[in-house]
């Protein structure tokens, strides 16, 4: 299954350079897991930092109206 010819579409990967807020905490947690052979008891500090960061980001930047491609398709239906 692919897209229909002639429909509007924006590639979401072009927006991949946007801010990734918890990347540093996630990388430090994954590095700790790697060094300790996947024993998360020894990485409790990094795990708590990652959890705190993720909880702080959970309410921010939510898009309740769906993706931009959904709206482009919805608006293009009205033009026909």
From TrEMBL:
GO cellular component entries: mitochondrion
IMS import disulfide relay-system CHCH-CHCH-like Cx9C domain ranges (all copies): 19-56
Gene Ontology BP, a term: mitochondrial translation
Record-linked Pfam families: CX9C
Source superkingdom: Eukaryota
GO molecular function per UniProt: structural constituent of ribosome
Name the record gives this protein: IMS import disulfide relay-system CHCH-CHCH-like Cx9C domain-containing protein
